[in-house]
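Protocol step 4 of 5: obtain the predicted structure for the target chain.
Materials: sequence only (see below). No template structures provided, no constraints applied. The aim of this step is simply to have a reference model before the mutagenesis design in step 5. Sequence pasted as it appears in the construct record:
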Amino acid sequence: MGTTSCGGDGERQSIEDKEQYGVLLYYKYTTVPDVDELVSFYESSCNSLGLLGRVRLSTHGVNVTVGGKLSALEEHIAAAKSNCLFQGTDFKLASCHHPLNDKVSQECGFTSLSIRVVEELVTFSTSPLLKSPDISNAGRHLSAAEFHSVLQSAKEQPDGSGKSENKELVLLDARNLYETRIGKFESENVETLDPEIRQYSDLPTWIDQNAEKLKGKNVLMYCTGGIRCEMASAYIRSKGAGFENTFQLYGGIQRYLEQFPSGGFFKGKNFVFDHRISVGSSKEEIIGCCLLCNNTFDDYSPRCRCRLCRMLVLVCNHCQVKGDDYVCELCRKHKGQVPLSLDHSNQPCESKGDDDTRRKLRILCLHGFRQNASGFKGRTGSLAKKLKNIAELVFIDAPHELQFIYQTAATTTPPPLGACNKKFAWLVSPDFDKPSETGWTVAQSQFDPLQYQNQTEGFDKSLTYLKTVFAEKGPFDGILGFSQGAAMAAAVCGKQEQLSGEIDFRFCVLCSGFTSWPLLEKKREQGSIKCPSLHIFGSQPGKDRQIVTQASSDLAGLFDQGCATVIEHDFGHIIPTKSPFIDEIKAFLNQFV
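Step 4 output (structure tokens):
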């Protein structure tokens, strides 16, 4: 265990307390036989010693960031060491200035003690489909000295071809963009890969999309204190042959800067998730810059945030304006789009404090056959009201405009067109005719409840239209489809991999849905659909006059059983909003909030 000093001379001089203040970080992956007993230990130890901060516990271990008097922190460490669960734990203790009761301390959770039992010590992914990798397969630990030595050797010995860049070695930063802005490892002959992610749970997707940059290489991973590399390195190694040589900096950047106070190969400052904000080397170098004027700047204490995604941004004192009207580089890069997932409910202590910046889900709503956006919005008013704290529902018209029809038995002359709203469809029958000049046609027969079985055309046009919607109005976290809209949404789910980058979403809600022809083709090609889905339909045959119960049940059967949730109700062709159905809908959506 080492105790380090942090902050400038002014900060050290400001410590006027009789006892110095400090911050303690540690984590431990281990099997916890009795979580309740561990909760009691932390409640007793932290409260009696006056420690504040965050404690996250699970059956897989602990993740702790707390602050208090140095003597109290040392006493807590001694108590933890007496428990065999903490054998081999790296307790990282640093002395620093006492936290002020300001916005920074509140955001970082250092004005109270938060002890929570969680499923994962770090939220590796928000996708219910992606299981956390086996932590026992994590990359080999390299001490700060070993890590430095590898980089030093690469600097002195270029690759065998004599080129200046060592092609066999890459550095991978496992941290978020707002951290890498102000500090990162740099070596002349080694490429540093910065995923530029908003949050840690975005890293698996980046790894999947950039696996070729890692395959066959010696991958040196690093993060603030080490915990994020444990899970991420295990995930990389789980990809099999070519990914075995993945290593991680033990103790993270914090231990490296203790070993190499002048910075070594680390440039800038180490972002930390407590009131200190960042910790630099003795060089006091600045690599960050103001978002607006591009002048050198790396101070996050103003807590400026992007107005779209709420990520921290660097804005110098001269450029700061009231109202926080800033847009980060990632939102600019993606044309102002906010991220698909901002899960702050269970972020690691190392990577996120308790935060109230969570945003609502954005759900694109697809209406049924011969409906329109305004009508569907009205029919789902109760649903929108009950989901108002979770989701924003966005409604659009389908691209195929339909003829108005009327029954001759009811009237001999149709009403004026101005009195009717246009009706649309996602899928149409092979004999589909565009609206005539009069806009009206006489119904050929009485209502046919099985007409949807003949609506097999128009998918390509609707798909192209949805690509435009996602580009201009997106992004969206999920798609909600009703009746034919559900059939369309399900077909899009079936093509989710091919549509990556054009139509990106994380889940679908299919209400009174049925299987469309494009989806049947997809089923034959690749089997079950692996998109998290919620299926809502009537349980009693005959209750839903438009879509038979079996058709909706068959649609649910096309989705992977591990990610499909079914809600059956005893009503008709509606989306139920009474309890317990609305509670089940909320439970599904809350997985993605």
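Step 4 remarks: The chain is about 25% helix and 20% strand. The first helix runs from residue 9 to 13.
Proceed to step 5.
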